[in-house]
Specification:
The structure holds 2 protein chains of 2 kinds.
Chain A lengths: L43 E3 L14 H17 L5 E9 L2 E8 L3 H20 L1 H21 L11 H5 L7 H22 L3 H18 L5 H8 L8 H15 L12 H7 L4 H18 L20 H15 L8 H18 L3 H49 L14 H17 L5 H20 L6 E2 L9 H6 L4 H12 L5 E3 L1 E4 L2 E8 L14 E4 L15 E4 L7 H9 L3 E3 L4 H4 L5 E5 L4 E4 L2
Parallel strand pairs in A: 7-8, 8-9, 9-10
Antiparallel strand pairs in A: 1-3, 1-4, 2-3, 5-12, 6-10, 7-11, 11-12
Helix pairs in contact in A: 1-5, 3-5, 3-13, 5-13, 5-14, 6-7, 6-13, 7-12, 8-10, 8-11
Chain B lengths: L4 H4 E3 L8 H4 L1 H12 L6 E4 L1 H9 L6 H7 L6 H17 L4 H15 L7 E8 L15 E6 L1 H14 L3 H10 L8 E7 L5 E6 L10 E8 L3 H4 L6 E6 L5 E5 L5 E5 L6 E5 L2 H4 L6 H18 L3 E7 L7 H6 L1 E8 L20 H8 L6
Antiparallel strand pairs in B: 1-2, 2-5, 3-4, 3-5, 6-7, 6-12, 7-8, 8-9, 10-11, 12-13
Helix pairs in contact in B: 6-8
Classes of the chains: A alpha+beta, B alpha+beta.
Chain lengths: 607, 365
């Protein structure tokens, strides 16, 4: 904390020290992710929403490529008047970001002209363009699914000769690996296509509501906007359907709590027609709905439900039990929809003038226009596409294991994608020359060191922000997606300066007050440790954690705005949630008793 | 013409808003609340007809009013001298027998089984009080924990006299309120011994937000809060969703309560274990907000409401509703008088709102 100067500042990037045991962390990331001397003059915040853990070397691509795409969108495509793109830096394995603002009024004006024309085109043709988007993203998904990893057998397939295709398959090792990266990049360009326009609509409506009703909670505004047919709920809805089918066909006892999914699936064919029918229904659901990630697609260990059936089965067995006891699992969609309309109508009626009502109708209309994209793109992009993408990279890892370069397929994720290029070139050369690849001796010590470093880096608690406290924060994405406003920064600053030891403050995202035992999850793979009635404390909750919400009493996250999934799902389940605390996982320990006040946005550590 | 007993004292349940000229603003408002079915402590009003009989003894019709109207609002000494004389004259005037009988009859009916020592609140109810143009809040006297027929009659007379307090007269002169037609009714209600009490605004007094109800509460009698003796807890409830949007629990150091030494009110220290504890349960907050909503909808305008709640905090919202009593409701007068300026106006195309916002750097919450 720089308490001496007149400008208020968080820790400066240059003042951050290496974590002991991980001094060589810079070797894991490209040079352009390192903090530069001039970076001390700028405000950075830790993107714990997307990157709650230290980044394995390959996984840094989930920062590099998204920021390549979103920056292109805001800086060059739609030409947002007041902001360029996002810069990211990695320190001690953690991703910090900042947006580059445009402050010169003339420059803002010049950009605004282009922006109005281009953004206007998208808003005016939103439904048609979004329909086209869905087709394009579906074809990207087919393309990534179709990618094969060459086998590199002793002799080439005779087709290459008899059909004179002319290219030996070692060539396709690199081409297909690059195709994975290229498709991932294209997916991210699509991901960001509508993003800022969508969030811009939200920001405008939120600000209007705050001006007209200064006391309105952000979650109430969100409830007026939210759609009901959100595709992210589908995987969970499908589990409920499977649970009902199991109960109605007399298979309930096949799904005891804590059962082994593989054992259950193996036993079902012996249950005659009912068992086979259930398995058929199960298989039909798995594609695409079990391509949902157990995380949110920013780490290689965010495996899909298909790869880790224990996650959906944890929810499934619970649903079977609930259905058996006569509980309806249906989301009351008609009631939710009616409630949404009632809330909107009552606020509309409370507005002071007819002019306000006209503006309200327009802004709410735009929000509802963009809502399907804002909610649904995540399933297609971060989930379906991304889990398939990581599976393909892992398949290249399997090739490297077969060729005795790596010890384990997942070791590939400890290499930068630029380094994987080298390892694959080594394979291609060795297959061509008939000699052995040289990678094992080179990469084994590198990978072992990186695993040790990542373990050491996990112990580091990254500060929520670095550099001088900014005067203003204009980026609508930063506000809406990360839940970071001037208030957040002030609260981080005051907490780092001197805070109440017992209180962790964030945004009340879903109302109510409960007390309970905290369960701190830093990693999605710990999801199975949650016990009924605990309070989930996590860096960020991913949409696919939906089933967990049936168990917990309240949710607390380090990062997230009112429209983050934790917030949306918590409201849906009617449980208190405090999001955007900056440091809940740092300050709360598993087993501590905490009180979550979803109205005030305060978590109190009771002991 | 001699007023009949029924014209000198009337039960609150018989009153409606348009009775204000003959019973005063507070009594008319309480009567209106009972008509809506809102719980109000049982009571009666000593009408302005009683007051007029007493004041008639001070001089010819209109003479007193004329004298007051001639006072210069800046002339504090003049106001002090004249009002002291009027108050003394009122207090020295014997209460006419028929008025005294009406008060006694009302009190006995009210006291019922509690008998002659039943504690009551004696509250001023001026005809200009609680009008939509000005609240006159707190300018008439209120006496709590008054017991016995003689004491009640004496305090009714004190309320009459309080129409001529320095503050009240100065306020009228500043506002240019005519004295003609001005009169004082006096409300006599069974005393409520609340666990906590406070005020409720059906429009945020701070931000003017019409979508919320703001409740302020402190331990004991509401006078602690109204007089500024204590920083109250504050709760903000959304009218639309029914959610408690914000709670601010204050350190409540003092409370007003019945003086154990006898009649009246004393200031006591709040026990340490209660200071930082919210004085309302969620069920109570919601029950209060529900009542507030009903009252403001009945009047069709935002209200400032005084309330009290008895008993322990346990129970559901419906049960809490049984323990709530409203003591007063007056129209909100600050925000209602400001012109309604639009926050935003429709634009040619709906998305122009977004384009303009993204063009202008700026406002963050």
């Amino acid at each position: 904390m720089d308490s001496g100067g007149t400008t208020r500042s968080f820790t400066l990037p240059s003042a951050i020290e290496n974590v002991p045991g991980a001094e060589n962390w810079r070797s894991m990331y490209p040079y352009f992710t390192g903090f530069q001397p001039g970076d001390d003059q700028r405000f950075w915040f830790y993107n714990s929403m997307h990157f709650p853990e230290p980044m394995p070397a390959f996984d840094a691509i989930t920062a590099e490529i998204p920021y390549t795409a979103i920056g292109a969108n805001t800086t060059r495509l739609f030409v947002l008047p007041t902001t360029l793109g996002i810069e990211h830096r990695i320190v001690n394995g953690r991703v910090y970001i900042t947006a580059i603002p445009v402050t010169d009024p003339a420059e803002i004006g010049r950009r605004a002209e282009i922006f109005s024309e281009r953004a206007g085109y998208y808003y005016q043709n939103w439904d048609r363009l979004y329909a086209g988007w869905k087709d394009r993203i579906a074809s990207l998904i087919s393309e990534i699914e179709a990618i094969t990893v060459p086998e590199l057998p002793e002799f080439e397939d005779e087709r290459v000769v008899m059909e004179s295709t002319g290219v030996a398959q070692n060539h396709y090792v690199r081409e297909n690996f690059h195709k994975c990266l290229d498709l991932y990049s294209k997916m991210w360009h699509h991901h960001t296509e509508f993003l800022m326009l969508g969030y811009g609509a939200y920001v405008v409506f939120f600000e209007f509501c705050k001006n007209a009703f200064p006391e309105i909670s952000e979650q109430t505004v969100a409830r007026m906007v939210a759609g009901i047919d959100v595709i992210m709920y589908r995987p969970d809805d499908e589990l409920k359907r499977l649970a009902k089918l199991a109960v109605s066909t007399g298979l309930a006892e096949e799904f005891p709590e804590g059962c082994d999914p593989e054992a259950v699936l193996a036993a079902l064919p012996e249950r005659g027609e009912a068992g086979r029918a259930w398995l058929a229904a199960f298989d039909a659901v798995r594609i695409p709905w079990f391509h949902v990630s157990t995380g949110d697609g920013f780490y290689h260990h965010h495996r899909s439900w298909n790869e880790n059936l224990a996650v959906p089965f944890a929810a499934l067995t619970r649903y079977v039990r609930l259905v058996s006891t006569g509980e309806s699992l249906d989301r009351p969609t008609a009631t939710l929809l009616a409630e949404r309309e009632r809330i909107a109508a009552e606020y509309r009626a409370l507005l002071a003038t007819d002019e306000d009502r006209g503006a309200f109708d327009q802004m709410l209309g735009v929000c509802r226009l963009v809502f399907p994209y804002v909610e649904d793109h995540k399933f297609y992009c971060e989930h379906w596409f991304t889990t398939r993408f990581f599976q393909k990279i892992r398949a290249f890892g399997e090739l490297l294991v077969r060729k005795e370069v790596l010890a384990d397929p997942d070791d590939i994720f400890y290499l930068q994608h630029y380094e994987i290029d080298q390892a694959l070139a080594d394979l291609m050369l060795a297959w061509a020359s008939g000699g052995p690849p040289l990678g094992a001796a080179h990469w084994h010590p590198v990978i072992a060191e990186r695993k040790r470093m990542l373990d050491a880096l996990k112990t580091w608690s990254p500060p929520p922000a670095l550099g001088p406290v900014p005067e203003a924060l204009n980026d609508p994405a930063v506000q809406m997606l990360w839940g970071i406003t001037q208030d957040t920064i002030e609260s981080w600053y005051s907490q780092s300066a001197a805070g109440d030891e017992r209180e962790v403050r964030g945004y009340g995202a879903s109302s109510g007050i409960v007390e309970g035992t905290a369960r701190v999850l830093r990693d999605v793979n710990e999801i199975g440790t949650i016990r009924d009635g605990e309070i989930l404390v996590c860096p960020v909750t991913a949409p696919s954690w939906g089933p967990v919400f049936g168990k917990i009493k309240a949710a607390v996250s380090d990062i997230g705005g009112t429209m983050s999934h934790a917030a949306i799902v918590a409201r849906e389940y009617g449980m208190p949630a405090v999001v955007g605390t900056g440091q809940a996982t740092k300050r709360i320990k598993t087993g501590q008793r905490v009180r979550v006040d979803g109205d005030r946005g305060v978590v109190t550590i009771l002991g | 013409m001699v007023p009949s007993p029924a014209q000198l004292a009337r039960p609150l349940t018989a009153l409606r808003g348009d009775d204000r000229p003959t019973v005063g603003g507070k009594a008319a408002s309480l009567g209106e609340l009972t008509a809506v079915g809102v719980p109000v402590p049982a009571g009666f009003v000593v009408t302005t007809a009683a007051y007029r009989q007493v004041v008639a003894a001070l001089g010819p019709d209109g003479a007193l009013g004329g004298q007051i109207e001639r006072l210069d609002p800046a002339d504090r000494t003049g106001i002090a001298a004249v009002t002291a004389w009027v108050r003394e004259a009122i207090l020295a005037t014997p209460i006419p027998a028929d008025v005294r009988d009406a008060i006694t009859t009302g009190y006995r009916a009210l006291a019922g089984e509690e008998g002659r020592g039943a504690p009551v609140a004696v509250r001023s109810s001026a005809t200009i009080e609680d009008s939509e143009s000005a609240s006159f809040a707190g300018l008439g006297d209120t006496y709590l924990w008054v017991q016995g027929e003689d004491a009640v009659a004496d305090h009714v007379r004190s309320c009459w006299a309080s129409l001529y307090s320095v503050e009240s007269v100065s306020y009228r002169r500043h506002q240019g309120v005519p004295e003609r037609g001005l009169a004082m009714g006096v409300v006599v209600q069974l005393m409520v011994d609340p666990r906590c009490a406070g005020v409720m605004f059906t429009r945020s007094p701070v931000t003017g937000d019409t979508s919320v109800i703001v409740i302020e509460a402190s331990w004991g009698l509401g006078s602690a809060l109204v007089s500024g003796d204590v920083t109250p807890d504050s709760y903000v409830v959304s009218k639309v969703t029914g959610e408690i949007v914000r709670r601010t629990v204050a350190a409540k150091l003092r409370q007003h309560q019945r003086d154990p030494a006898g009649a009246g009110v004393c200031v006591a220290t709040v026990p340490a274990e209660l200071r930082d504890v919210p004085c309302l349960t969620d069920a109570e907050i919601l029950a209060l907000a529900g009542l507030g909503r009903r009252v403001s909808e009945h009047y069709g305008a935002p209200q400032d409401i005084e309330w009290a709640i008895t008993g322990s905090g346990a129970g559901t919202e419906a049960e809490a509703g049984q323990r709530v009593l409203l003591l007063q409701s007056r129209p909100e007068t600050v925000w209602s008088h400001r012109p309604a300026t639009p926050v935003a106006a429709p634009k040619a195309r709906a998305f122009d709102h977004v384009l303009e916002r993204l063009r202008a750097p700026g406002t963050t919450r």
